[in-house]
Amino acid sequence: MLSVQDIHDHVGKYVKIPESWRSKNYAFEFSECVNSVVKTEMFTEIKNAAYHTLIVDESTDISVSKMLILYMKYRNENESIYKTVFAGILKVIACDSLSIFQAIQNFYIENGFDLNKMVVFTSDGASVMLGKRKGVAALLRQLIPHLSEQHCVAHREDLGLDDAWKNIPLMKEIETLLRTVYTIFCRSSVK
To answer: Any idea where the DUF4371 domain is (predicted)?
Structure first.
């Protein structure tokens, strides 16, 4: 965000923007320019890191397009704090392990990342992702022998809450209370 502020300050001081540029298209163009700068800096940091973790989750959007959401976790050489950053959204042909594997491999090639620097692959617990023989992690491990896989902590927590919700009577009462409160406010004419 500091890079964005620097660009904004520079443009504000030295570049005169005509009134005709005040449209949505120019806003998108400006956002794309800012994104390009931030993405370049971030990807350079990831490339220079000794190792990184890839965190993925598959999704289907409103138009039923199959998407793969990527995050990367890394640490700069001179820092002790790890960064988790949004790396991108990839469109995949299908939600099978081979398509996802190929999308990840293409992403690494297109952005100049070294697959061998990946030390942990994290995803939901779906067999497509973490299957022992034909999952994405297994396919990646054929290329990266030192790779470890991990079931995402947030997904595990969600599964645990789901189990607790089913087995603890108090949780059902809390759900009923919350649904009732929501219904009252949702149907209120004042809101």
So the answer is: 31-133
Q: Is the dihedral of CA 122, 127, 129, 131 positive or negative?
A: positive
- Residue 61 structure tokens: 């959007």
Asked if 92 contacts 58 with a C-beta cutoff of 8 angstroms, the reply is: yes
**Single-letter amino acid, residue 109:** I
Encode burial over 61-88: b for 16+ CB neighbours within 10 A, e otherwise.
eeeeebebebbbbbbeeeeeeeeebebe
Name the residue among 108, 75, 70 with its Cα closest to residue 89: 70
* End-to-end CA gap in the chain: 35
CB 122 within 8 A of CB 56: yes
| Residue range 83-107, pLDDT digits in tens | 999 998 898 888 888 999 999 999 9
* C-alpha–C-alpha distance, residues 104 and 129, integer Å: 12
**Neighbouring residues of 3: CB distance < 8 A, sequence distance ≥ 6:** 34, 37, 38, 41
- CA 170 – CA 147 distance, rounded (Å): 42
For 149-179, write each residue's pLDDT tens digit. 988 887 778 778 778 778 888 878 888 898 8
Better-predicted residue by pLDDT, 26 or 160: 160
